[in-house]
Design goal:
single chain; 365 residues; OB fold (Dihydrolipoamide Acetyltransferase, E2P); 4 domains; 4-stranded antiparallel β-sheet; 3 helices; 24% helix; 41% strand; rod-shaped
Length: 365
């Protein structure tokens, strides 16, 4: 019994020693592997020059190229309304007519007086210098009477015409603010008239762009009401003054609106495209942000090295680099999340070239 127990204890001791040796060897091997940096598979891109377009983004409000309130110059009762809301009318179309009975009677009376005065004046001028006894003084009095009668008739005619309110230009009328039979005072807004064939957008931009913005430059405008539709136009006016508080200046742009689909008073996002230029561009996915510093990983002989860069304009998929990179540098664009400074890398494939794109200031959308 004692002999068997002794054999068992010897076997257990030998097995424990063997296990301890194997465990120690495994830990040592793992420790040696832990000390060696792991190679990371990455994609890289070669830094190149590309075409970028500076642009300015702003928000503006639409206005009709011409817009007026239709108002009477005199008081009176509305007798006729000759338009429907939203109707397109031509210039000089009679929109509203006030009761003109009194004005019409006065026009007829003054016309008769003018015609009688004209007859007397013509007769006096014909007899002047003949054997008939018509003095020069009498002829002059009758000519003066005719001129007075003529002036009175013209005033009465103007008063009669003021009872009819016409469209001053081609445009689209708004809502009816009065009904037939209403008594209105001078200055009452009867409706509105907008020339929507061209829309004007006014917006403000920072003063740093004052030397870059010129009349005739192209603009595009978008609004949520029309989805992804882009309306194109040109700058028509640039203000000659800088606002001392906002340090910005006003710009007006005109956008064709032949179908009158853009209304007045609508907010629109406006983009002004400036001149093209060449710049270094890299994919946005190559950027690493650490606090206030922006970095990229350079491929230096299959080693990833962190390198600070200065950004310029943000593009659709790329970003401009104004400092920190040179044409021909190779940067990591994929696999960055597994990288550390100085880590060995193996390039799986080069990233495809990036196409030119429009730009906005970095950090802005």
């Amino acid at each position: 019994m004692n002999y068997r127990l002794s054999v068992f204890l010897v076997v257990a001791a030998v097995a424990g020693a063997a296990g301890l040796y194997a465990s120690s060897s495994f830990l040592n091997k793992d420790a040696s592997l832990a000390g060696k940096p792991r190679t990371v598979l990455v994609e890289v891109a070669t830094v190149k020059m590309g075409t970028v377009r500076d642009r300015i983004d702003a928000v503006g409000t639409t206005e009709a190229i011409k817009a007026v309130n239709i108002v009477p110059l005199v008081s009176g009762r509305v007798e006729e309304i000759n338009f429907s809301p939203g109707e397109k009318v031509k210039a000089k179309t009679a929109l509203v007519r006030l009761n003109d009975a009194v004005a019409s009677a006065q026009e007829q009376e003054t016309r008769a007086e003018m015609e009688r005065a004209k007859f007397d004046n013509d007769r006096a001028q014909a007899l002047l210098g003949s054997r008939a006894a018509v003095s020069k003084a009498t002829a002059e009095e009758r000519e003066a009477a005719f001129q007075i009668a003529k002036a009175r008739h013209e005033a009465a005619l103007d008063a009669l015409e003021e009872r009819t309110i016409d469209a001053p230009f081609d445009g689209t009328v708004g809502f009816k603010n009065v009904d037939i039979g209403d008594y209105v005072s001078a200055g009452t807004v009867l409706t509105t008239l907008d020339d929507l064939s061209t829309i004007e957008i006014e917006f403000s931009v920072p003063e740093i762009y004052y030397g870059s913005v010129k009349e005739g430059m192209e603009v595009t405008a978008q609004t949520l009401a029309f989805g992804k539709t882009r309306f194109r136009g040109k700058i028509s006016q640039v203000d000659t003054r800088i606002d001392p508080i906002s340090r910005s200046f006003r710009i007006k742009a005109e956008i064709p609106n032949e179908n009158s689909e853009i209304p007045t008073g609508m907010f629109m996002n406006v983009r002004v495209t400036l001149e093209k230029r060449e710049a270094i561009k890299i994919p946005q996915e190559a950027l690493v942000f650490q606090g206030e510093e922006t970095l990229v990983y350079l491929d230096k002989d299959n080693v990833a090295l962190q390198h600070p860069v200065t950004l310029g304009l943000r593009l659709t998929k790329n970003v401009e680099v104004t400092d920190g990179l040179s044409v021909g540098d190779r940067i990591v664009v994929k696999g960055i999340q597994n990288l550390r400074n100085g880590a060995p890398i193996r390039v799986v494939t080069d990233a495809p070239d990036n196409k030119p794109s429009s730009a906005t200031p970095a950090g802005k959308s």
